[in-house]
């Protein structure tokens, strides 16, 4: 029997061709997965490196935060000292004002009696000046 005389079984041919196409598709999918896995391994390496850097940065931040905490404690003490100094200053000012008020109370009667005395003294000064400037006034003031 000759090959040309044989009848072609298209069912078997389609199964064989389908199998080969399926195998090629599977190989392509596996190759694509392999590339994806390789890229993912690189990404994971980068991520691991980034996480190490982040850990180092976090440790540095922890040190800075502890320094800041110490500085805040020092500042807190300084605020307390400033507050104490302000309180002392206000107390001194209040004491000075009280002393000034007491001195004013002592001086007030003297100032009240000083008015007529000042008027008399002014009159005496005018008489003295007039006495020097005119002999007539001098004689008149001597009689007064």
UniProtKB/TrEMBL annotation:
Origin: domain of life: Bacteria
Keywords: Membrane, Transmembrane, Transmembrane helix
Transmembrane segments annotated in the record for this chain: 12-31
Protein name (record): LPXTG cell wall surface anchor family-like protein
Lineage of source species: Bacteria, Pseudomonadati, Pseudomonadota, Gammaproteobacteria, Chromatiales
